[in-house]
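Example with several molecule types.
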Amino acid sequence: MAHAHISGNFPPDIDPTKAPLAFGRRQQALMTLCDLVHDPENVYQVIEVGFLDNLKTLLLHHDSTVRQKTTQILYVMAMHNVGRQGLIQNGVISAITDLLDDPVDICRKNIHQIFEIMAKLPEGAVGILHAGLIPLLVFKLKTESDEIQELILDTLSNCLHVEASEALATSAITILKEKLTHSSAAIRSKAAWVLSEISTHPEGKSVVCEETIPVLVSLLEDTDPEVQASATGALMFATVKPAGKRALGAEAIPPLLKLVAEETSKARLSAIKTLTMLAELPEGRKTLLDHTDTFQQCLNDPCEAVKRAAKIAISVIKWKPF
Amino acid sequence: MLPTRQLEVAAAPAVLYSYCSRPHALPARPKYRAPPDAAEPEKEPLRYANLMYDRRVVRGNTYSLQVKPVITQPNPLEIQRQREARERALARKRAKEQMQPRTPEPVEGREHIHVQTELYLEEISDRTVEVDTECQTDAFLDRPPTPLFIPAKTGKDVATQIEEGELFDFDVEVKPILEVLIGKTVEQALLEVMEEEELAQLWAHQRAYAELRNAELAEVQRLEEQDRRYREEKERRKRQHMQMLQKQKETTEKIAARAFAQRYLADLIPSVFNNLRDSGFFYDPIERDIETEFLPWLMTEVEETLEKKVLGRTVLDSLIRTVVEKRLDAFSHKPLSDETEAPAEELRPADAAHQADSETDAADQLVAEKEGSDQPVADEHPSRHVSFQLEESDQAGTGDLETE
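Resulting C-alpha cells for the full complex:
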C-alpha cells in the first residue's frame, strides 16, 4: 500500500498524525509528502526510490482530492531540476495527458503548470512535442479559463521555441489572433510572444504577415509595456521577408520610433531591430534618415546588445546602393 | 565402561539446546488492576517479586507430592483407562450399595415413618430452605492514591513565599516555544517563497536571454535575407552584363561585317560595270544591231558564197583529179609519167608549208587591223584562215594547173 511505502521515507521526527484524521490515511500521507517535496533532497529521494510509478497510478484515482494533491506534488517536484529530469525519464508527461480533461479545475491548473515548467527545459519541450500535445493544447486555448490560458500560452511559446513547424499544421494562428484582442494584458502579451516564436519559422512568417500585422501594429500602442515588447518581437520576425516589410507600411514607423526613444522600454531592442528591417526598403530608409538622432541616443544605452543593434541600424539606414 | 559412557554423554550435547521458553525472571503480578482511564499502559518500571513469596511456586517437599502433570491433550489410551476406571468405580459403588445392610421392609399394614428423635424438632420439607446469599470477592480495588508522604518533621521551620510571577513568567517561558513554532512556519514559508522568487528570477533571466536570442535570430534572418537579396541582385546584374556584352559583341561583329561588306562591295559597282561593260552589256544598240544581225547575215551570205566557191572548187578538183587520173592512166603506159607526178606531189606539201607561213602573217595583220571586238574577229579568223587557205590552195591549184 502506498502508505506503508511512504512511511519508510519519512524522517523520524515527522508526526504522521499531523493532518486531521478525516482525510484518510492516504491523503494525509500525500499532504505530508507535498510539504516535504519542497526540499530538493527529498525530491531526489522520491525519484531514487521509484515512487513516481505509484504517483502515476494515483493520478487515476477516483477521489479528486487525491488527484489534486498528486498533481501538486508533481508540480513542486517539477520546480527542481532533479525532479524535472526524473519526470522526463519516467514518462510522466504521457501519463498526465489524460488528466487534461479532468473536471476539477485545480487538477487541470496543476497539470498545465507542470507542462509550463517542463517546457522551459529543452528535453521537456522535446518530450511534449513528441507526445503530440501541441494540437491538443491549441484546442484547449479556446475552452479554458484565463489563468489556464496564460499557462498554455507559455507552454506553447517554449515548445515552439524548439520546433515551430508543429503549430503551423493546426489553425493556431487564427486562435492566437483572437487572443491578441483579449481583455487581459497578460494574455495579449503571451499570445504575441507565441506569434513571434511561430514567425521565426519561414512558413510561419508568411502566414503571420497575411493575417496579423494590422492587429500587431495596433498593439504597439497598448498601455502595457509587456504587450508592446511581445508585439514588437513578433513584428521583428514578421518583417524579415520583403512581403512583411511592405505589409507593415509607413504608419508603423512612428510608434516604433516612440518605443525606441523611451529609455527604459523593454521593447527597445526589438523596436530597433524592426526598424532595421524596415530600413532595408528604400521608402523606409527615406523616412528613417530623418530620425537617425534617435538611434544615436540609443548608442548610450548600458545594454551591450542595444548599442550593437543601434549601430547596425544606423549603418543600414545610411547605406547607399553605390 | 563408565568413562566411555561419560565420554558419550559428554560428546552428546554437540547439538545446540533450544528453549521452548527462555528462562527469565517473572515479573510480579500486579495487586491492583490497571486504572480504567488510561489509554495505554504507562510504562512503570518492572517490579520483580521475591521468589520466596510468590504464590505460584510450590512449597514443601517435592519428593512426596506427586502432582500429576497437566495433560492438555490426553492420549486415547489414557482416556480409555479413565473411562474404565470410572465405570469400575460406578460398578463398585452400585455393588457396595447392594451390599449395604438396609432396614427390612415394613410389615403388612405398617409403614415406616421417619421420626426425628433429636431434642429439637426440625421441620423437614422437600424444599430445602434456601437462602440466597450473595458473596463475592471484593471488587478489584482501584489502586488507592499513594498517601502523602509526610516525613517526620525534623529541623527548623523556615518559611519562604513565592510571589506571583517569580517562578513562572508566561511571556518569558512562552517566547522560545513561540519562536520555534513561528520560526518553523516562517522558515517553511520562506523556503516556498524563496523557491518561487528564485524561479521567477530564473524565468526573468531566461526571458531576457530569450529576448536577446530573438534579437540575434532576427538579425541573422535579416542578414540572410539581405544576403539573398544581394545575391539575387548580383545574379541579375551579372546576367544583364553578360547580355550586354553579348549584344556588344554582336554589334561589333555586325559593324565589322558591315564595314567589311561595305569595303568589299565598294568597288562592286565599278567592277560590275566594268565587267558588264567588258562582257558587252552596255552596248551601242546600233553597233549591237549591226553585230548581231547584219554581220551574221553577212557572214552567212559570205559562207554561202564561199561554200559555193568551195563546192565549185571541189567539183573542179574532182574534175581535175579524174582528168589527171585518166591522163595518168593514159600516161602510165609510159614510164616517164611517174617522175612528173612525184614532183607534183612534192610541190603540193611545199606549197602547203608556204601557205601556212603566209597565213600566219596574214592573221597577224588582221589582228592589228581589228581592235576591240574579239569574238567576231575570232569567228572571222578561222573563216579567213579557211578562206585564205582556200585562196592559197586555189592559187596553188591554179599555179599547178598553170605549171602543168
